[in-house]
């Protein structure tokens, strides 16, 4: 007996019902993107490793799925290299491409390649899968979809404000209560300078970004492992533990960073965003979180993260300002800001909270029973009229027993079944059964179309 097939860990199959739910999320987000003036692009699933490597930090580079070169990829390797068993070095020799880790770096590459065709500021969105060689766990997958919106070629903080409004709009439409967390990488850079560890900004942000997962003691231990002294850690901890309203936390960090130009600029930017949003009365809470770091190295200004309030799960959206990303591809001075919605985690949240509208589960609206060749041909002409009215209908493909055909309709949650026998054909009517109530009525094709529209 053949072994039962399986799929790689961290990936999933999706049933028709699951796809209906996922498409409800994608359609809601896509409609919001259009509403806010974003245009759609797509980039390849694979990129050159030279495009991807070094953009996500050391930890991100480790999570890149590398694609083995085709052909004789051993031909350029010496026996010494093969015997060294150095996985990283060998991979660099026979892997030239990788699956994209996110949509932002490929987008930056796209902007540089197509800069002569674009009008700036350029507002783009993408809804595509990404891959990460991470350890699979609840809410964390190796293949998952991101829904990104970015504005590039403009450094106005109005862009951050609009992205926060977009986040609020999407989650209000989906019915998910969220808290939006805000910080600024300039504030974090200023803190690193004030505590005397300016060269350790990456280590500091990577460590404090794990605060929710490993706690304050874990963060402290990791900072020590990275060579950050106890005196610097003692200065850092009160900042990470700052409490109060947004204005109180701004006042606290403003005093700490008053003499630091970088940090003061971050406080100024954050103040503008918070005060502007406060005047716009969004539904979601927007909170200054001085522990928010977002580990990706390319962020340079405001950073955002969104948490669901009613489900214990990681962030379901996030993003930030990146001023230097296109520079690594040869195009300097192009500022960008963007956000990403994690469709898979949003799906898990909505499933757990039963937030999907019943009519989001797309199914055939009416199935015609098949009694034989003559009846089937008659039914197909009626089905064509129903479909022309923009309604979904199908004919059971073979004249099986009625019980089997009705079972098919039940299992696919088809709300109505049309029964056309000899008398219905003669009278040019349709016997329509409501599968929920069991009620059956005879009607014309026009009446049936009105029923299905209703």
Can you describe this structure?
This protein has 454 residues and is an alpha+beta fold. The chain has 2 domains: 16-353, 2-Layer Sandwich (BirA Bifunctional Protein, domain 2); 363-453, Rossmann fold. 44% of the residues lie in helices and 18% in strands. It has helices at 16-35, 49-52, 57-62, 79-84, 87-94, 104-113, 158-174, 185-194, 201-208, 211-225, 230-240, 246-256, 261-280, 343-353, 373-388, 402-411, 422-427, 445-453, and strands spanning 39-40, 46-48, 66-68, 95-99, 122-131, 143-152, 178-184, 285-288, 302-308, 317-322, 336-342, 366-368, 393-395, 416-419, 430-434, 440-443. The strands form 3 sheets. The chain has an 8-stranded mixed sheet with strand order 1-5-6-11-10-9-7-8. A 5-stranded mixed sheet has the order 13-12-14-15-16. Strand 15 (430-434) and strand 16 form a beta hairpin. Helix 8 packs antiparallel against helix 13. It is globular and about 90 Å long. The relative contact order is 0.11.
- SSE class: alpha+beta
- Helix tally equals 18
**Order of the strands making up the biggest sheet:** 1-5-6-11-10-9-7-8
> Which fold name is given in CATH as the topology of the largest domain?
BirA Bifunctional Protein, domain 2
Which term fits the overall shape? globular
Strand count, sense and barrel status of the largest sheet are:
8 strands, mixed
Report helical residue fraction: 40-55%
